[in-house]
Protein backbone atom coordinates (compact mmCIF):
# COMPACT_ATOMS: atom_id res chain seq x y z
CA UNK A 1 0.00 0.00 0.00
CA UNK A 2 1.52 3.36 -1.07
CA UNK A 3 1.55 6.14 1.48
CA UNK A 4 1.82 8.80 -1.21
CA UNK A 5 2.88 9.36 -4.81
CA UNK A 6 4.04 12.23 -7.02
CA UNK A 7 2.89 13.46 -10.39
CA UNK A 8 5.24 15.50 -12.58
CA UNK A 9 3.92 17.67 -15.35
CA UNK A 10 6.22 17.71 -18.39
CA UNK A 11 5.52 21.36 -19.05
CA UNK A 12 6.40 22.21 -15.46
CA UNK A 13 9.75 20.39 -15.74
CA UNK A 14 10.60 22.14 -19.01
CA UNK A 15 9.72 25.50 -17.47
CA UNK A 16 11.88 24.78 -14.42
CA UNK A 17 14.88 23.67 -16.48
CA UNK A 18 14.42 26.58 -18.88
CA UNK A 19 14.46 29.05 -16.01
CA UNK A 20 17.63 27.47 -14.63
CA UNK A 21 19.39 27.49 -18.01
CA UNK A 22 18.32 31.09 -18.67
CA UNK A 23 19.68 32.13 -15.27
CA UNK A 24 23.02 30.42 -15.95
CA UNK A 25 23.35 31.87 -19.45
CA UNK A 26 22.35 35.31 -18.21
CA UNK A 27 24.91 35.13 -15.42
CA UNK A 28 27.60 34.05 -17.89
CA UNK A 29 26.79 36.98 -20.20
CA UNK A 30 26.91 39.45 -17.31
CA UNK A 31 30.30 38.13 -16.22
CA UNK A 32 31.73 38.30 -19.74
CA UNK A 33 30.45 41.82 -20.42
CA UNK A 34 31.60 43.00 -16.99
CA UNK A 35 35.06 41.38 -17.20
CA UNK A 36 36.81 44.41 -18.79
CA UNK A 37 35.76 46.68 -15.91
CA UNK A 38 36.29 44.16 -13.10
CA UNK A 39 39.56 44.04 -11.12
CA UNK A 40 42.39 41.99 -12.62
CA UNK A 41 42.33 38.24 -12.14
CA UNK A 42 44.06 36.66 -9.13
CA UNK A 43 42.77 33.12 -8.87
CA UNK A 44 44.74 31.91 -5.83
CA UNK A 45 42.72 28.86 -4.82
CA UNK A 46 45.59 27.08 -2.99
CA UNK A 47 48.94 27.70 -1.30
CA UNK A 48 51.06 27.23 -4.43
CA UNK A 49 49.07 29.81 -6.42
CA UNK A 50 49.08 32.20 -3.46
CA UNK A 51 52.88 32.03 -3.27
CA UNK A 52 53.27 32.43 -7.04
CA UNK A 53 50.92 35.43 -7.11
CA UNK A 54 52.71 37.09 -4.21
CA UNK A 55 56.15 36.66 -5.81
CA UNK A 56 54.88 37.78 -9.21
CA UNK A 57 53.42 40.92 -7.62
CA UNK A 58 56.66 41.55 -5.73
CA UNK A 59 58.68 41.20 -8.93
CA UNK A 60 56.61 43.97 -10.51
CA UNK A 61 57.07 46.51 -7.70
CA UNK A 62 59.95 48.95 -7.48
CA UNK A 63 62.02 47.59 -4.61
CA UNK A 64 65.65 48.46 -5.33
CA UNK A 65 67.04 45.55 -3.32
CA UNK A 66 70.80 45.17 -2.99
CA UNK A 67 70.56 41.38 -3.07
CA UNK A 68 67.91 39.44 -5.00
CA UNK A 69 67.20 35.80 -4.23
CA UNK A 70 65.48 33.63 -6.83
CA UNK A 71 64.88 29.91 -6.98
CA UNK A 72 62.66 27.01 -5.99
CA UNK A 73 60.76 26.39 -2.74
CA UNK A 74 63.98 25.68 -0.82
CA UNK A 75 64.97 29.29 -1.55
CA UNK A 76 61.55 30.43 -0.34
CA UNK A 77 61.44 28.32 2.83
CA UNK A 78 65.08 28.00 3.94
CA UNK A 79 66.29 31.62 3.78
CA UNK A 80 64.59 34.44 5.67
CA UNK A 81 65.25 37.62 3.71
CA UNK A 82 64.47 39.85 6.70
CA UNK A 83 67.12 38.10 8.83
CA UNK A 84 69.64 38.26 5.97
CA UNK A 85 68.94 41.98 5.53
CA UNK A 86 69.54 42.67 9.20
CA UNK A 87 72.73 40.58 9.26
CA UNK A 88 74.21 42.07 6.09
CA UNK A 89 73.01 45.64 6.50
CA UNK A 90 71.68 45.45 2.96
CA UNK A 91 68.20 45.14 1.49
CA UNK A 92 67.46 41.53 0.55
CA UNK A 93 64.40 40.44 -1.43
CA UNK A 94 63.40 36.79 -1.78
CA UNK A 95 61.52 35.92 -5.00
CA UNK A 96 61.87 32.18 -4.45
CA UNK A 97 58.70 30.48 -5.64
CA UNK A 98 57.63 26.83 -5.93
CA UNK A 99 59.58 23.89 -7.27
CA UNK A 100 56.88 23.13 -9.83
CA UNK A 101 58.11 26.06 -11.94
CA UNK A 102 61.27 26.02 -14.05
CA UNK A 103 64.46 28.02 -14.54
CA UNK A 104 62.90 29.86 -17.47
CA UNK A 105 60.11 31.17 -15.23
CA UNK A 106 62.67 32.18 -12.61
CA UNK A 107 64.36 34.20 -15.35
CA UNK A 108 61.03 35.82 -16.24
CA UNK A 109 60.59 36.95 -12.63
CA UNK A 110 64.10 38.40 -12.57
CA UNK A 111 63.51 40.19 -15.86
CA UNK A 112 60.22 41.62 -14.59
CA UNK A 113 61.91 42.79 -11.41
CA UNK A 114 64.72 44.49 -13.32
CA UNK A 115 62.21 46.32 -15.50
CA UNK A 116 60.40 47.69 -12.44
CA UNK A 117 63.45 48.96 -10.54
CA UNK A 118 65.53 52.08 -10.94
CA UNK A 119 68.78 50.19 -10.21
CA UNK A 120 69.93 46.64 -10.64
CA UNK A 121 70.75 44.58 -7.53
CA UNK A 122 74.43 44.23 -6.72
CA UNK A 123 74.04 40.48 -6.38
CA UNK A 124 71.52 37.95 -7.71
CA UNK A 125 71.60 34.53 -6.05
CA UNK A 126 70.01 31.50 -7.72
CA UNK A 127 69.14 29.08 -4.91
CA UNK A 128 67.98 25.56 -5.77
CA UNK A 129 67.75 22.13 -4.23
CA UNK A 130 69.58 19.16 -5.82
CA UNK A 131 66.20 17.51 -6.46
CA UNK A 132 65.20 20.48 -8.60
CA UNK A 133 68.35 20.28 -10.73
CA UNK A 134 67.76 16.70 -11.83
CA UNK A 135 64.07 17.19 -12.65
CA UNK A 136 63.40 16.85 -16.36
CA UNK A 137 60.19 18.89 -16.59
CA UNK A 138 58.11 21.42 -14.70
CA UNK A 139 54.43 21.21 -13.81
CA UNK A 140 52.59 22.38 -16.92
CA UNK A 141 49.61 23.62 -14.90
CA UNK A 142 51.79 25.72 -12.57
CA UNK A 143 53.77 27.23 -15.43
CA UNK A 144 50.56 27.95 -17.37
CA UNK A 145 49.00 29.59 -14.31
CA UNK A 146 52.05 31.81 -13.88
CA UNK A 147 52.10 32.74 -17.57
CA UNK A 148 48.41 33.73 -17.42
CA UNK A 149 48.96 35.72 -14.25
CA UNK A 150 52.02 37.63 -15.47
CA UNK A 151 50.16 38.46 -18.68
CA UNK A 152 47.10 39.68 -16.75
CA UNK A 153 44.82 37.04 -18.27
CA UNK A 154 42.09 35.02 -16.59
CA UNK A 155 43.39 31.68 -15.41
CA UNK A 156 42.38 28.74 -17.61
CA UNK A 157 45.00 26.26 -16.39
CA UNK A 158 42.43 24.00 -14.70
CA UNK A 159 40.21 23.81 -17.79
CA UNK A 160 40.92 20.84 -20.00
CA UNK A 161 40.05 22.56 -23.24
CA UNK A 162 38.23 25.53 -24.69
CA UNK A 163 34.94 23.61 -24.68
CA UNK A 164 34.89 23.29 -20.88
CA UNK A 165 31.41 24.08 -19.53
CA UNK A 166 32.63 26.13 -16.59
CA UNK A 167 34.71 28.25 -18.96
CA UNK A 168 31.64 28.94 -21.12
CA UNK A 169 29.74 29.92 -17.99
CA UNK A 170 32.51 32.33 -16.94
CA UNK A 171 33.48 30.48 -13.77
CA UNK A 172 37.11 31.54 -14.25
CA UNK A 173 36.00 35.19 -14.25
CA UNK A 174 33.97 34.71 -11.07
CA UNK A 175 36.80 32.87 -9.31
CA UNK A 176 39.64 35.11 -10.38
CA UNK A 177 38.09 38.57 -10.35
CA UNK A 178 35.37 38.48 -7.67
CA UNK A 179 36.01 35.59 -5.30
CA UNK A 180 39.70 36.52 -5.05
CA UNK A 181 38.84 38.76 -2.12
CA UNK A 182 37.74 35.77 -0.03
CA UNK A 183 40.60 34.32 2.07
CA UNK A 184 40.92 30.57 1.68
CA UNK A 185 41.96 28.23 4.50
CA UNK A 186 45.28 26.42 4.17
CA UNK A 187 45.47 22.70 4.83
CA UNK A 188 46.88 20.71 7.76
CA UNK A 189 50.12 22.13 9.28
CA UNK A 190 50.17 25.21 7.05
CA UNK A 191 46.63 25.99 8.17
CA UNK A 192 47.67 25.66 11.81
CA UNK A 193 50.70 27.90 11.25
CA UNK A 194 49.22 30.61 9.03
CA UNK A 195 45.46 30.10 8.94
CA UNK A 196 44.36 31.53 5.60
CA UNK A 197 46.02 32.48 2.32
CA UNK A 198 45.83 36.14 3.31
CA UNK A 199 47.81 35.41 6.50
CA UNK A 200 50.49 33.57 4.49
CA UNK A 201 50.92 36.58 2.20
CA UNK A 202 51.11 38.90 5.20
CA UNK A 203 53.92 36.77 6.62
CA UNK A 204 55.78 36.77 3.30
CA UNK A 205 55.46 40.54 3.01
CA UNK A 206 56.87 41.00 6.52
CA UNK A 207 59.80 38.65 5.82
CA UNK A 208 60.97 40.02 2.49
CA UNK A 209 59.22 37.38 0.40
CA UNK A 210 60.26 34.40 2.52
CA UNK A 211 57.95 31.78 4.03
CA UNK A 212 58.47 28.73 6.23
CA UNK A 213 57.48 25.06 6.32
CA UNK A 214 55.85 24.09 9.65
CA UNK A 215 55.87 20.34 9.03
CA UNK A 216 58.04 17.73 10.80
CA UNK A 217 60.26 15.37 8.83
CA UNK A 218 59.69 11.64 9.15
CA UNK A 219 63.11 10.29 8.20
CA UNK A 220 61.73 6.76 7.74
CA UNK A 221 59.61 7.99 4.84
CA UNK A 222 62.47 9.58 2.87
CA UNK A 223 62.30 8.17 -0.64
CA UNK A 224 63.76 8.83 -4.06
CA UNK A 225 66.99 8.23 -5.92
CA UNK A 226 70.27 9.28 -4.34
CA UNK A 227 71.85 9.82 -7.73
CA UNK A 228 71.96 13.52 -8.57
CA UNK A 229 72.72 15.32 -11.82
CA UNK A 230 71.68 18.37 -13.84
CA UNK A 231 68.96 17.52 -16.35
CA UNK A 232 69.31 18.55 -20.00
CA UNK A 233 66.30 20.94 -19.85
CA UNK A 234 67.86 22.72 -16.87
CA UNK A 235 71.18 23.05 -18.67
CA UNK A 236 69.43 24.54 -21.68
CA UNK A 237 67.37 26.93 -19.55
CA UNK A 238 70.44 27.98 -17.56
CA UNK A 239 72.12 29.57 -20.57
CA UNK A 240 68.99 31.65 -21.18
CA UNK A 241 68.73 32.58 -17.51
CA UNK A 242 72.30 33.89 -17.61
CA UNK A 243 71.28 36.37 -20.33
CA UNK A 244 68.84 38.06 -17.92
CA UNK A 245 71.62 39.07 -15.51
CA UNK A 246 72.68 42.72 -16.00
CA UNK A 247 76.36 43.49 -16.59
CA UNK A 248 76.57 45.42 -13.32
CA UNK A 249 75.13 42.56 -11.22
CA UNK A 250 76.98 39.51 -9.94
CA UNK A 251 75.36 36.07 -10.20
CA UNK A 252 75.98 33.64 -7.34
CA UNK A 253 74.60 30.11 -7.04
CA UNK A 254 73.77 28.05 -3.98
CA UNK A 255 72.56 24.50 -3.40
CA UNK A 256 70.37 23.85 -0.37
CA UNK A 257 70.95 20.82 1.90
CA UNK A 258 69.41 17.37 2.31
CA UNK A 259 68.88 15.32 5.50
CA UNK A 260 72.01 13.44 6.59
CA UNK A 261 70.25 10.07 6.74
CA UNK A 262 69.39 10.33 3.04
CA UNK A 263 72.91 10.85 1.66
CA UNK A 264 75.55 8.25 0.85
CA UNK A 265 79.36 8.24 1.09
CA UNK A 266 79.94 9.77 -2.36
CA UNK A 267 77.24 12.39 -1.91
CA UNK A 268 79.41 15.42 -1.08
CA UNK A 269 81.89 14.82 -3.90
CA UNK A 270 79.04 14.35 -6.36
CA UNK A 271 77.23 17.52 -5.25
CA UNK A 272 80.43 19.55 -5.35
CA UNK A 273 80.97 18.52 -8.96
CA UNK A 274 77.33 19.31 -9.78
CA UNK A 275 77.59 22.73 -8.15
CA UNK A 276 80.68 23.56 -10.20
CA UNK A 277 78.98 22.36 -13.39
CA UNK A 278 75.87 24.40 -12.56
CA UNK A 279 77.99 27.51 -11.94
CA UNK A 280 79.83 27.02 -15.22
CA UNK A 281 76.60 26.49 -17.17
CA UNK A 282 75.17 29.70 -15.71
CA UNK A 283 78.42 31.64 -16.16
CA UNK A 284 78.07 32.46 -12.46
CA UNK A 285 80.55 34.73 -10.73
CA UNK A 286 80.73 32.60 -7.61
CA UNK A 287 79.50 29.48 -5.86
CA UNK A 288 78.45 29.74 -2.22
CA UNK A 289 80.75 26.86 -1.33
CA UNK A 290 80.58 27.40 2.44
CA UNK A 291 77.00 26.12 2.63
CA UNK A 292 76.64 22.44 3.66
CA UNK A 293 75.25 19.79 1.34
CA UNK A 294 73.61 17.95 4.25
CA UNK A 295 72.41 18.71 7.78
CA UNK A 296 70.98 16.65 10.70
CA UNK A 297 67.52 15.18 10.12
CA UNK A 298 65.99 17.00 13.09
CA UNK A 299 66.61 20.33 11.34
CA UNK A 300 64.28 19.48 8.44
CA UNK A 301 60.57 19.87 7.81
CA UNK A 302 60.79 17.82 4.61
CA UNK A 303 63.52 16.47 2.34
CA UNK A 304 63.86 19.89 0.70
CA UNK A 305 62.81 22.36 3.43
CA UNK A 306 64.38 23.21 6.76
CA UNK A 307 62.27 23.32 9.91
CA UNK A 308 61.37 26.81 11.21
CA UNK A 309 63.78 26.46 14.14
CA UNK A 310 66.71 25.93 11.74
CA UNK A 311 65.97 28.78 9.31
CA UNK A 312 67.62 31.57 11.30
CA UNK A 313 70.95 29.75 11.72
CA UNK A 314 70.99 28.67 8.09
CA UNK A 315 70.14 32.20 6.93
CA UNK A 316 73.05 33.60 8.94
CA UNK A 317 75.37 31.00 7.38
CA UNK A 318 74.01 32.00 4.00
CA UNK A 319 74.59 35.69 4.75
CA UNK A 320 78.12 34.98 5.95
CA UNK A 321 78.89 33.10 2.75
CA UNK A 322 77.76 36.16 0.78
CA UNK A 323 80.29 38.27 2.67
Compact description:
The chain is of the alpha/beta class. The protein has helices spanning 10-34, 47-59, 73-78, 81-88, 103-116, 130-134, 140-151, 165-168, 171-178, 188-194, 197-206, 232-242, 267-282, 308-322; strands at residues 67-71, 92-94, 123-128, 250-255, 258-259, 286-287, 294-295. The strands form two sheets. Strands 2-1-3-4-6 form a five-stranded parallel β-sheet. Strands 5-7 form a two-stranded parallel sheet.
How is this structure best described in words?
With 323 residues, the chain is an alpha/beta fold. 48% of the residues lie in helices and 8% in strands. The protein has helices at residues 10-34, 47-59, 73-78, 81-88, 103-116, 130-134, 140-151, 165-168, 171-178, 188-194, 197-206, 232-242, 267-282, 308-322, and strands at 67-71, 92-94, 123-128, 250-255, 258-259, 286-287, 294-295. Strands 2-1-3-4-6 form a five-stranded parallel beta sheet. A two-stranded parallel ribbon has the order 5-7.
List the helices and strands and how they pair.
Blueprint: H1 10-34, H2 47-59, E1 67-71, H3 73-78, H4 81-88, E2 92-94, H5 103-116, E3 123-128, H6 130-134, H7 140-151, H8 165-168, H9 171-178, H10 188-194, H11 197-206, H12 232-242, E4 250-255, E5 258-259, H13 267-282, E6 286-287, E7 294-295, H14 308-322
Parallel strand pairs: 1-2, 1-3, 3-4, 4-6, 5-7
Helix pairs in contact: 2-5, 2-7, 2-11, 4-14, 5-12
Amino acid sequence: MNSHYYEFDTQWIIKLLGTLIAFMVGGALVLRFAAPILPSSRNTWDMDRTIMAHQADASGRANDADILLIGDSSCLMNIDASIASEHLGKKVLNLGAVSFLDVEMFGNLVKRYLESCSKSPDTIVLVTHPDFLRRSSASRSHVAWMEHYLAGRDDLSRRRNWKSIDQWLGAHILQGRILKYLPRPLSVEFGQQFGFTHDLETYMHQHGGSALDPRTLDAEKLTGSREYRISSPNKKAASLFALTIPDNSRLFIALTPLPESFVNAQFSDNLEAIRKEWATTLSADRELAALPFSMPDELFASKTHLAPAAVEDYTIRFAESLK
